[in-house]
Amino acid sequence: MIDGHTKLYGLLAHPAAHSLSPAMHNLAFDRNQINARYLAFDVTPETLPTAVNAIRDLHLGGVNLSMPLKKAVIPLLDHVSDFAQKAQSVNTIVNRDGELYGYSTDGVGVVQALKHHTDLSQAHVLLFGAGGAAESAALALSDNGVGQLTIANRHVEKAQNLADRLSALTQVISLEDEAAVCAAVQQADVLINATSLGMQVQSELTPMPASAQLRADQVVMDMVYDPLVTTFLSQAKQAGVKTCLNGLSLLVAQGAASFELWTDTQMPVAEVEKHLAGLL
Questions:
Q1: Residue 82 labelled as part of a binding site
Q2: What are the residue boundaries of the Shikimate dehydrogenase substrate binding N-terminal domain, all occurrences included (predicted)?
Q3: Which residues are annotated as catalytic?
Q4: How far, in Å, CA of 63 to CA of 54, rounded?
């Protein structure tokens, strides 16, 4: 029941109406009997400073942010975690008595989702992409002691710039070098698509060559969650890969990390993921 004590949380994004975050967090609030509600707010980079001030003035408990607001919000905050500072990306703000703390749960979500299926310290991860999503994932994997990381990107210089910031043993290859990509696929224990290929209008596209040879014991993750089964994941399933993780698992893992920062309570992950899958 919404009353005078209900705490408000939200998403700052542009556009915002399509987001699954309200459904995710409101279900989690209900299941944990927390008197709170989560709304989506359409906020542009131009209106971001006003929106951030509103978090303080209206005593919101916290918010999530999407691109391109994740970097723009950093100078507007009172405190930023070391990881978010390193990633130059904040996707979660916690309001503690008017002081705004910025965190990034993007990469944390990747690590948490993968830890259920593999020992990252022994894993060789092949990461497709070097943009914002790939950057957070690479930094988190590196910080969590991944065995080896290979970054495959169309623009090698961008991938190399990312690799130079990592502590993990990292190599860079071009997505346009099919032989190198196929070799990396065979060597990898974990494959992650952090590109936009496979998303909506690009749903038939994939960063992995059709000639790539996959193994049944590999873990394959796609950050895209709409559609739930992308061409990238279809390739893996057809090759007999047993562990295929769609972007919905990642979305919920990231959301669960934000939820815990706000409430010190765990999100009922399995129930939330099942609920969101039914909405897609």
A1: yes
A2: 11-93
A3: 70
A4: 11
Q: What is the CATH number of the domain that holds 64?
A: 3.40.50.10860
Rounded CA Rg of the chain? 19
DSSP β-ladder status, 219-222 and 190-193: parallel
pLDDT digits (tens, 9 = 90+) for 39-89: 999 999 999 999 999 999 999 999 999 988 999 999 999 999 999 998 889
> Annotated binding residue at 1?
no
3-state secondary structure of 221: strand
Is 98 marked as a binding-site residue? no
Q: Residue 174, annotated ligand binder?
A: no
**SS3 category, 152:** strand
Cα-based angle 133, 191, 86 (whole degrees, multiple of 5):
35
In this structure, the answer to whether residues 123 and 224 fall within a common structural domain is yes
CA separation for the pair 73, 61 (Å, rounded) = 17
Q: Is there a single domain that holds both residue 98 and residue 151?
A: no
Q: Which domain holds residue 76?
A: 7-104+250-277
Number of CB atoms found within 10 A of residue 217's CB: 11
Residue-wise pLDDT for 187-204, tens only, equals: 999 999 999 898 877 788
The pTM of the full predicted model, rounded to 2 decimals, is 0.88
Residue 2 forms part of a structural domain: no
Same domain, 99 and 112: no
Number of domains within the chain: 2
